[in-house]
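Entry type: protein chain
Record version: 2
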Amino acid sequence: MIFAALIDLLLALILHYYGPKQEATRWAVFFFVCTCLGSLSYVIEDSIMPALQLYKLSNPFVDTVFFNLHIACFFILQACVPYAFILFSIVYSEVVIPRIKKMLVYSLTLPIIVTLFITPLKPDIEINYPLLLIWAAPYYLIACFLLIYSYLKEKNPVKRRSRFIIVCFAVPPIIVIVILNNFERAFNQNDQGVRYISIFVGIAFVVFIFSAIRYGALGVRIKFEKQRLDQSIKGIASGTSMLNHAIKNRITNIDMLVDRMKEISQSPEQKRMDEDIALIQLETQQMMQIVKRIQQQIEDIELEEGVANLIHIMTMALQSNYYLLENKGVFISTDYFINIDLVCDKVHLQEVFNNLIRNVVDAVEPGMGKLSIRIYENKSNVLIVFSDNGSGIDKDAVSKIFVPFFSTKHREDNFGLGLSYCYLVIQKHGGKIDVTSKEESGTTFTVRLPKFRKVYSSSQ
């Protein structure tokens, strides 16, 4: 049981520190804390108290402390774990409206309170297992049903895979708990099978770690590289809050002025002005969406995924930077070998493309610049490649290019955040962004998005 307690504690810590700050994650952490304490009750009974007796370290005070801790942890295991699991499933499955969900948080505690009042705690805790079976088993089984149902009804392919991982990770161990703990104790007064639960916990832990590394599980994706970079990116948040408020005010003013300009420009010869105004409005709308995202989750980037056409996103990014490219005299060539829809956050993905295009504008010589954009796929990824014939990047600077506040431009209006933002957004999509460059030979940025985000080919 020491093994099970350590696994549960580790899972709780992983989700608490690296999981998304969402209600489902909080209930998952609460569930693992409860199971950890439950396993600790067996550790106290089977290992700690006998060891104290063996090494003659026990005394009435120490024995009382550990005995009461054992009782409390054991009650948490039997009564609080099913409550935590069903609340996690209700929140994670998203099948219950918020008002009903709030009522369930309180009403589902009633069996726990009743069990506590009728359970003798002295001289040792004596759980009424037949009574516990009446409510705890349904809690577990309904929770499993909700997880499976949420997987079956999910249409978003990325979320569907994530829900499938949770079903594989959570449902088998819970079924084992219901059989070996609840049914065996209620009908056979046998607790020997409980000792084997840790085996299934270990298997579930392996499933979780593998899934977190390969795909991501419960919003956690384990990476073994660039950890310092990830932490540095999160350190940007403190200044972002102030910046966010200032930008929002300016955007509101711009939008108001554009509306006034639009009222004035009604004559036919003002067509060009209308086009410019339309572009400005697109810019303000894009920026306002980003500002709202920052405000909602200031500590990290949270994706709001939907289905969007990749070429359309790229077209909007090029249109957004039309005048920058035109004024610099940049020749643009595009090769779109595929025309697909992706499950992605189109707002953040367009902003990534915007940043990469603006980098090209900064890197090339006026009137001589070339930007090549290619979109294609291989066996594993959808690739978006931006190549230019600019000044290139120094070899030592290439390894630092995604580090926050690092910049090769040395201008007061450049803060060195664009590429670190790109890195984080693409990482959140489960992809990678790489750079290859030589001084005076141009630069190539390659965005790799996992192929499972592909929905269908528009040409099919």
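Comment: Residues 224-228, 411-415 have pLDDT under 50 and may be disordered.
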